[in-house]
């Protein structure tokens, strides 16, 4: 529950990176949270005479930033980490789909708990999950994921995925792991109507999210786009992740992924796509023209040897770009701070070298950029009066960071910084690196048990 609107929390004496349009920063400043909104942010001490101050936090030695926003993930993969570690994307999918196709509601709930807990304790205040595996008779998977997010206390977007192109149709998933076209569309619409909240301070939203060009039919893409726009929600899928996908699209559709997506209604300011590694100039221009967003997942792209996305070129062209963890079967750490650092470092291996990204650009990708991609830049992603109180206080005076003068540089270039406090909707969910909302040790034990149960079932065929 969000705190009462007349209750104030004051954070003082901390460095602040607002990530607003002017990149405003304060070497020592204050934040006032009133209920679930940011009431004021500025240099020096908080205004005098504030009423109903229920808590004051001395932020000396800390950096306050907007909460991190994760724009692409697959929570269910938490219980299949560490497998197929030397595979490219297509071989990795072929190796793991037979296991994933045996998940059930209990496994999905436990995996969502683990994924969410790891992100939240590391500074994520808004998460998303692209869930697209719905084995027959597996239970209420969407409901279990949403329940785990509510219990953890993070703001959440469920991208209700789907697949209808199985092995018999030339796709990668096993035949028993996909839905019918009609079934997928009906279940997606039901999920949106049951769970999507369009309000300013919504904690749960739903997007329409067929999985990828090589696991869904053209008709599912086309009708999925029509469904999303009729219901007024966003669209999400995978795009241009590997050279194999590029080849697949040319062979099957006679065009590259971007042209194929445009032909099915899948470019627009209400769309964001994961990865977008193999983009030509014309593809980037199309995304910029239509304001189609990108979820950049540097660790997963490296893990699966997919390549280096042209993030600097996308940003210069005006493409909205956020960061994503991606599923933890291709990013075993499962937390977003790693993506701040890896986005900066990996992109410096590309054509732009040291000019590719700066520390502040990386932080913007992980905060305001993510809010843009999820369609929530008016509510979250920067520390500004009137925005929702999603704030992280990073401890920067420990051995890991204390000798780095600039706290933003320390946060992005340095080791993962401890989270002293994380607030979502004005409610504190992390204190001194530990979750306040769920028992981390119990979640760890449950995820281990569910991973072992899934492994036994998969081994039995």
Describe the structure.
This protein has 461 residues and is an alpha/beta fold. Helix content is 35%, strand content 21%. It is built from 14 helices and 17 strands. Strands 1, 2, 3, 4, 5, 14, 15, 16 and 17 form a 9-stranded mixed β-sheet that branches.
Unreliable sequence segments:
none
- State which percent range the strand residues make up: 15-25%
**Portion of residues in helices?**
25-40%
Please tally the helical runs, counting DSSP H or I stretches of 4 or more residues: 14
Structural class: alpha/beta
The counted number of beta strands is 17
In round numbers, the mean pLDDT is: 96
- Largest sheet descriptor: 9 strands, mixed
Q: What is the CA-based Rg, rounded?
A: 21 Å
| Cα-to-Cα separation, first versus last residue | 43 Å
**What's the shape?**
globular
EC number: 3.5.4.32
Keywords: Hydrolase
Enzyme class: hydrolase
GO molecular function: 8-oxoguanine deaminase activity
Short description, anyone?
This protein is of the alpha/beta class and 461 residues long.
Main attributes of the structure:
461 residues, nine-stranded mixed sheet, four-stranded parallel sheet, 14 helices, 17 strands, globular, hydrolase, Metal_Hydrolase, Amidohydro-rel
Secondary structure layout plus pairing:
Elements: E1 8-17, E2 25-34, E3 37-43, E4 53-58, E5 62-66, E6 68-69, H1 89-100, H2 105-120, E7 124-131, H3 141-152, E8 155-162, H4 181-195, E9 204-210, H5 218-231, E10 235-239, H6 243-253, H7 257-263, E11 271-275, H8 281-290, E12 293-296, H9 298-303, H10 311-317, E13 321-323, H11 337-347, H12 359-373, E14 391-395, H13 407-413, E15 419-424, E16 427-431, E17 434-435, H14 440-459
Parallel strand pairs: 1-4, 1-5, 6-7, 7-8, 8-9, 10-11, 11-12, 12-13
Antiparallel strand pairs: 1-2, 2-3, 5-14, 14-15, 15-16, 16-17
Pfam family, one: Amidohydro_1
GO molecular function, one term: 8-oxoguanine deaminase activity
EC number: 3.5.4.32
């Amino acid at each position: 529950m969000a705190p009462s609107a007349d209750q104030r929390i004051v954070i003082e004496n901390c460095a602040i990176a607002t990530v607003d349009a002017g990149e405003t920063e304060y070497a020592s400043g204050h934040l006032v949270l009133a209920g679930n909104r940011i009431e004021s942010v500025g240099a020096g001490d908080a205004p005098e005479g504030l009423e109903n101050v229920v808590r004051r936090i001395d932020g000396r030695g800390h950096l306050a930033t907007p909460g991190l926003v994760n724009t692409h993930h697959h929570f269910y993969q938490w219980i299949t980490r560490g497998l197929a570690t030397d595979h490219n994307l297509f071989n990795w999918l072929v190796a793991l789909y037979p296991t994933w196709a045996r998940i059930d509601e209990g496994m999905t709930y436990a995996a969502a708990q683990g994924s969410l807990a790891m992100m939240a304790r590391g500074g994520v205040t808004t998460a998303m999950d692209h869930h697209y595996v719905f084995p027959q008779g597996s239970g209420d998977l969407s409901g279990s994921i949403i329940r785990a997010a509510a219990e953890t206390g993070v703001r959440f977007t469920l991208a209700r995925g789907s697949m209808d192109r199985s092995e018999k149709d030339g796709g990668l998933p096993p035949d028993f792991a996909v839905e019918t076209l009609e079934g997928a569309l009906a279940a997606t619409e039901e999920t949106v109507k049951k769970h999507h909240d369009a309000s300013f301070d919504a904690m749960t939203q739903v997007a329409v999210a067929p999985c990828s060009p090589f696991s869904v039919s053209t008709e599912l893409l086309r009708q999925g786009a029509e469904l999303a726009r009729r219901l007024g929600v966003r669209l999400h899928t995978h795009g241009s992740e590997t050279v194999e996908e590029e080849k697949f699209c040319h062979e099957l559709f006679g065009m590259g992924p971007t042209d194929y997506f445009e032909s099915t209604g899948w470019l627009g300011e209400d769309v964001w796509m994961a990865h977008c590694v193999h983009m030509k100039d014309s593809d980037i221009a199309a995304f910029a023209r239509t304001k189609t967003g990108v979820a950049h997942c540097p660790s997963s792209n490296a893990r699966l040897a997919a390549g280096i996305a042209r993030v600097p070129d996308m940003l210069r062209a005006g493409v909205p770009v956020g960061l994503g963890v991606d599923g933890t079967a291709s990013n075993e750490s499962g937390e977003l701070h790693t993506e701040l650092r890896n986005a900066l470092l990996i992109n410096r291996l590309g054509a732009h070298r040291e000019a590719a990204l700066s520390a502040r650009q990386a932080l913007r990708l992980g905060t305001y950029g993510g809010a843009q991609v999820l369609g929530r830049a008016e509510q979250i992603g920067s520390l500004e009066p009137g925005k929702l109180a999603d704030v992280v206080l990073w401890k920067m005076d420990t051995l890991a960071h204390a000798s780095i003068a600039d706290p933003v540089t320390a946060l992005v270039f340095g080791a993962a910084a401890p989270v002293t406090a994380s607030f979502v909707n004005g409610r504190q969910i992390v204190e001194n690196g530990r979750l306040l909302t769920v028992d981390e040790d119990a979640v760890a034990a449950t995820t281990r048990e569910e991973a072992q149960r899934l492994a036994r079932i998969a081994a039995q065929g």
